[in-house]
Specification:
Order of helices and strands of chain A: HHEHHHEHEEEHEHEHHH
Strand order of the largest sheet of chain A: 1-2-3-7-6
Strand order of the largest sheet of chain B: 3-2-4-5-7-6-12
Strand content of chain B: 15-25%
Bound molecules: thiamine diphosphate, magnesium ion
CATH class of chain A: Alpha Beta
Largest interface: B-D, 56 and 55 residues
Structural class of chain A: alpha/beta
Structural class of chain B: alpha/beta
Radius of gyration of chain A: 19 Å
Oligomer: heterotetramer
CATH topology of the largest domain in chain B: Rossmann fold
CATH topology of chain A: Rossmann fold
CATH architecture of chain A: 3-Layer(aba) Sandwich
Strand content of chain A: 5-15%
Shape of chain A: globular
CATH superfamily of chain A: Thiamin diphosphate (ThDP)-binding fold, Pyr/PP domains
Shape of chain B: globular
Largest sheet of chain B: 7 strands, mixed
Helix content of chain B: 25-40%
Number of domains of chain B: 2
Largest sheet of chain A: 5 strands, parallel
Helix content of chain A: 40-55%
Number of strands of chain A: 7
Number of strands of chain B: 14
CATH class of the largest domain in chain B: Alpha Beta
Number of helices of chain B: 11
Chain lengths: 335, 329, 335, 329
């Protein structure tokens, strides 16, 4: 097992105000990035198959949002879901094992990157279907309300997903029933090759909240403090029965949409420009500027994370391949 | 068995009510199931008994409704979704097929989706092509879904209670013309296991294999045929997935003749599967005549009453098909 | 043939400002009401089968909107579609024949009330699927734009339909492509038994326009002038390349949702209250008050319409029943 | 026939390009078909040739896209919709099934929907259960839809051009593993009629009936089997609706043995229909052995490469099934 201890249940104001919180957040940010860089490498060397969607550049959204959640809260995730998974506390070895199609992977090698779920940390699953998780999150939130629990559910999705009917129907249900669900849109400006300028006629996805009568806000998704504070407000409201919120976090993916992307639809300049606004660098810089963390401490986190990832790859690689014996018997759960 | 006679709709309602009393995690959601009592009156007074939290009226958004049921099921609830007409499952196919059916397998086995999706199906009410389809073969083809078509009040209560118990998504297709039919239904909570075909009548000349409303129609036909000396077995497939070929093969072995009867259009319909199973052997060796399918025509369901009847198997057609089969034409 | 001459292509300001327009509008309003009252009667006497959705009380929306359209413009309609059909100029005999399942009906008896279409008057079809026609209207509008024609398309739908994903996806496409389509929501407060208070968390459906960046307005749907003027503005904008508009017309259906409705979800008082605001009575009153029409003229229209409907029933009844011979050959069009 | 060899993806692109040149009402719409060139590179440079009006990139909204195509088709355009993976037709089933398929019939015959819906189908790319389905039987079962599964570059160009000409909605399912395969394709605009099965190889010992990618796999198997003295016919079903049983029945009459090969899960899959047609006679009388289906397993498509292969018919499995059929086991 190679786990990190992500920042969950932070309650001490902005993340950059507490050394402990900052360290945990940094560990989460770096774990996501290192995990995905490792995956990218394994992929390039032909050691992974299928397809792969990396969230490099977007790590602050998952990390900032999950910092406002407690363990018993739930999330639904997307095709670009490693960040959500890690920020909610998943075991990196089991994630890596899944991507390597191992029997010890989260999905026993049956799901791959797009389907990682982890019941233990409340991750109800990545989803290969754009917007597929949004109604599911709404239903999980309905269950919390019906059971009288104070858990909340976060649904992560992209800008492109907000053009799907599933987004619309789910937000409407959540609004009508005042469910404890937070809709977090990672607006990375593109749905595959389609920029938001082409796919919608509005400036901000948060404008869509008005159609359902739910509060909506736009935040800088590369500013983990901003993300966290918006999430915290929404989570608190939801937990107290105040209903859903739509949060739009503006961010950017450094890599292409997936392995087969030639990046023809955006400019080098745009990419470089966003790299300057990298959420991890930005957060490290802030912590050091504030004298919250030293360069050494930052490097230590980095080093620890790298070792954890190496360990994850090592033990995942040694695990047995996904077994064909249990295919038929796995379609239905036996009562 | 009890002597109590109730309608099919009442049997559905009773099953749901009893399950909800027994298990607080069972609830119902769908369009107009509250004060309206359901488009076909199935939920009836459940709203008075259980209140609007557990008999949950929804906006018109089938995809959202099924998705909400999937999410609730994932975290321990047992939702029963009513889709107002089975035709509107088209709106929700992503959540039914890409989510509900696959989650348990695809996500590695820890999570599951104990959801029941009920939908009125079939033609006969003059509601035309978008409100009259029989789409069972879509669902039956999807690994991860169980599919049942209860053919009588007795069947629907027992199968529905099994569906609610089942930790997997189960599609329950209720023929809308059956809702007002009556039959004996015990008051206690009995279960009919999913995945077991039912020999409802035993004869020696031929076997009719049927689903849903065609079961009673075949039984009527068998009755009339017996008057002219033709002795017919009838098997109610009951559970389309998983399918139990046992009684079907037994009867073929005995009678040598098989008629497959469904309301849905013939082409690539469910009965094709049964024909295929038979023709893969060993039952094929018992056939005295080619298999005969008696199915809906390959057309959308028309509005005009005489046309609507003409496009799906009716009693006279079933009877004459049986006679043809026996004459070997 | 029993046709009326509906008001199309009005260009002379509010309808109640021109006698000619007022007479034509009145003819349309009465035709819709009389047609549906007749249908209601035939149904009650068991002479019609299937189901039936009546728009009695809502006639001003279809009439007011179509007054702003020209013949070559298109509409898509709904399960509650008689009003749209008549206001766009359909032949009442063929409509009645369809409901009576006759070979001479618009659908040759194959569609019934929920599927009447009339290519000649640009009616692309009623629809048994809630919100089913909205994306279709969008596509028809796309075709007008691609062909360089200045026709517009109106999509009629109910308040309940706006909770469907189809509404969302279609409005977004129309907005992104700036298509000449006008989305007309007949907000009659209920989707079957579900009031808008339960089915959405907003006060006005027009608030949903903001999610797509399209102009949206709420009008009194029982005031034919108000409907017409809003439609006219939207149609003119669309025709000039200004893109789509969402119009919410607040109205009410006097009858139940369909034949099987016991009206348990609304009060007698509410129904009576809305009957006092009946759009036809209101318009007649206005015209007489303004001395635009005399009571006699109004009665004449009424009498003419009644005779037309009687004639429609008479000739429709004499037509041959829908023919079973052409079922199989009608599934596919032969090139 | 021309000697020019191009890929399947190029053949699709060429057909679309030629149709668009010939007819200004033909246009394409779908996700990422513009500058991206399509998720599978099919549209490629069409955006450069025809511009963004006619190679119309869309937001992610499959239901809206298909609905827009239906509406455009109703008023005289000839849209070609690309659904990025056939799995996402689940999102658009209402427009495909309740609208496109039924409009011509249900609305009385005046209007029609000359729309083509193309979608990459099948497994083999490690994309797991939501991106790898073979859903042809859904569409084939719906009256009012035509369904083709082109099995080679030559086939896809000819069938696609027929689909574009057709005044009815046609679903074109392109196996994603075929896109990079090459074959001879004439440059001119030739048509392959929809509704005609194709005998692609003639043998005397048994006939393999296959769809889509299984056609080439069966041809390979036939090749290998011929080396050990087994002589196999192969029929490419090509058009699933309407279905032409002619060549299939001919070959059964000749060989007495039939194997039905599809990638989709076996249960209620398309090949069940062919089995049913055979077993309804007269072809059944020519059978020397029961029918044999070689199909996908009834499971969602798994991610792990060896599992993904294990669940759909591969060459060795097809070969050994043929041998079993000949040995009568
Ligand atoms: C229903 C559906 N349509 C299309 C796709 C193909 N697809 C996968 S990811 C993607 C882009 C999603 O964009 P966005 O929601 O912005 O998320 P991002 O990839 O930017 O994180 C597309 C079109 C899909 N998986 N599901
Ligand atoms: C997709 C779909 N879901 C549900 C129905 C059943 N249904 C028919 S009309 C209707 C209510 C529609 O409400 P609204 O859109 O407000 O139109 P209104 O009937 O008030 O004119 C419902 C639920 C349907 N026909 N289609
Ligand atoms: Mg995006
Ligand atoms: Mg309404």
């Amino acid at each position: 097992m190679a786990t990190i201890t992500p920042l969950l249940g932070n309650d001490a104001g902005a993340i950059s105000e507490s050394k402990e919180a900052a360290l945990a957040a940094l560990e989460s940010l770096h774990s996501i990035r290192s995990f995905e860089e490792a995956v990218d490498g394994l992929f390039a060397r032909g050691m992974m198959h299928g397809t792969m969607h990396l969230s490099i550049g977007q790590e602050a959204v998952a990390t900032g949002v999950c910092a406002a959640l407690k363990e018993s809260d739930f999330i639904t995730s997307t095709h670009r879901g490693h960040s959500h998974c890690i920020a909610k506390g998943a075991d990196l070895t089991r994630m890596m094992a899944e991507l390597l199609a191992k029997q010890t992977g989260y999905c026993r090698g049956r799901g791959g990157s797009m389907h990682i779920a982890d019941a233990k940390t409340g991750n109800l699953g990545a989803n290969g279907i754009v917007a597929g998780g949004i109604p599911i999150a709404t239903g999980a939130a309905l269950a919390q309300k019906m059971k009288g629990l104070d858990n909340v559910v976060v649904s992560f999705f992209g800008d492109g997903a907000t053009n799907e009917g599933a987004f619309h129907e789910a937000l409407n249900l959540a609004a009508v029933w005042q469910l404890p669900v937070i809709f977090v849109c990672e607006n990375n400006k593109y749905g595959m090759s389609n920029s938001t300028e082409f796919s919608m006629n509005i400036g901000h996805i948060a404008e869509r909240g008005a159609a359902y009568g739910i509060p909506a806000v736009t935040v800088d998704g590369n500013d983990i403090d901003a993300v966290y504070l918006a999430a915290k407000e929404a989570v608190d409201r939801a937990r107290q029965g105040g209903g859903p919120t739509l949060i739009e976090a503006e961010t950017y993916r450094h890599k292409g949409h997936s392995k087969s992307d030639k990046n023809l639809y955006r400019t080098k300049e745009e990419i470089e420009d966003w790299k300057l606004r990298d959420p991890i660098g930005k957060f490290e810089h802030l912590c050091m500027e504030k004298n919250l963390l030293t360069k050494e401490e930052v490097d230590q986190v980095n080093a620890k994370v790298r070792e954890t990832i190496r360990e994850a790859i090592r033990s995942a690689s040694e695990a047995p391949d996904s077994s064909p014996d249990e295919l038929i018997s796995s379609v239905f759960r036996v009562a | 068995m009890s002597q109590r006679v109730i309608t099919y709709a009442e049997a559905v309602r009773e099953a749901i009510g009893q399950a909800m009393e027994a298990d607080p995690s069972v609830f119902m959601l769908g369009e107009d199931i509250g004060i309206y009592g359901g488009a076909f009156g199935v939920s009836g007074d459940l709203i008075q008994r259980f209140g609007p939290e557990r008999i949950r009226d929804t906006p018109i958004s089938e995809l959202g409704i099924v998705g909400a049921a999937v999410g609730a099921a994932l975290v321990g609830m047992k939702p029963i979704v009513e889709i107002q007409f089975s035709d509107f499952t088209a709106q929700a196919m992503d959540q039914i097929v890409n989510q509900a059916a696959k989650i348990h397998f695809m996500l590695g086995g820890e999570l599951s989706v104990p959801m029941v999706l009920r939908a009125p199906t079939g033609s006969g009410t003059g509601a035309a092509a978008q409100h009259s389809q029989s789409l069972e073969s879509w669902f039956a083809h999807v690994p991860g879904l169980k599919v049942v078509m209860p053919s009588s009040p007795y069947e629907v209560k027992g199968l529905l209670l099994s569906a609610i118990d089942d930790p997997n998504p189960v599609i329950v297709l209720e023929h809308k013309l059956l809702y007002k039919t009556s039959g004996e239904v015990p008051e206690e909570m009995y279960r009919i296991p999913i995945g077991v075909s039912n020999l409802v009548r035993e004869g020696k000349d031929l076997v009719m294999v049927a689903t849903g409303i065609m079961v009673s129609r075949c039984l009527e036909a068998a009755q009339e045929l017996s008057a002219i000396g033709i002795d017919v077995s009838v098997v109610d497939v009951r559970s389309l997935t998983p399918l139990d070929m046992g009684p079907i093969e037994d009867q073929i072995r005995k009678t040598g003749r098989v008629m497959l009867v469904q309301e849905a259009p013939k082409h690539v319909g469910y009965m094709a599967e049964i024909a295929a199973r038979i023709s893969e052997g060993p039952a094929i060796y018992s056939l005295l005549e080619p298999i005969k399918r008696v199915c809906g025509m390959d057309v959308p369901i028309p509005y005009a009453p005489q046309l609507e009847k003409a496009v799906v198997p009716q009693l006279p057609g079933i009877i004459s098909a049986a006679q043809e089969l026996l004459r070997g034409v």
